[in-house]
Design goal:
Blueprint lengths: L10 H14 L5 E5 L5 E5 L2 E9 L2 E6 L3 H7 L5 E3 L9 E4 L4 H15 L2 H15 L8
Helix pairs in contact: 1-3
């Protein structure tokens, strides 16, 4: 979670939120809510996979991961272990810049939270997109 977090109101925070929304639009059944602490949270079937907020230090984003990926990421700037829920593998990033890498991490976070039916739906689409059409050999 975001330390001293509050609703996203800064220009940088709103830009971050729009990028996250663009990523989440490609994923089925994502719900965006504002939780009791004022954090903007993305959920799938009631399970959180992204938590965002603004603080005096600027916007930040936390996402669901596993402990192995977390251990790797937090050795690099700008990643850190998320306060309060980091023991469950959550990773935070302040003012993210590398959206190419982050997009993959956020989609992976979705897959960790989503029920099997939705995971298969998402992975099935990816598999279909990556397999070239068959051509007959004569």
């Amino acid at each position: 979670m975001v330390p001293n977090g509050k609703s996203i109101t800064s220009k940088k925070g709103l830009a971050m939120l729009e990028k996250v929304r663009r990523i989440c639009r490609s994923l089925p059944e994502v719900e965006e809510i504002v939780d009791g602490f004022g954090h903007t949270t993305c959920k799938v079937k009631g399970k959180s996979f992204i938590i965002m907020g603004d603080s005096d230090e600027g916007p930040s984003l936390s996402f669901k991961s596993n402990r192995e990926t977390q251990a790797f990421l937090i050795q690099q700037e700008p990643f850190s272990k998320t306060p309060y829920i980091g023991q469950h593998g959550w990773v935070s990033v302040k003012e993210p810049e590398n959206w190419g890498m982050l997009e993959g991490l956020l989609k992976e976070a979705y897959l960790r939270a989503a029920p099997k039916r939705l995971v298969e739906q998402v992975l099935g689409k990816r598999l279909q997109q990556s397999i070239p059409p068959q051509t007959e050999i004569e």
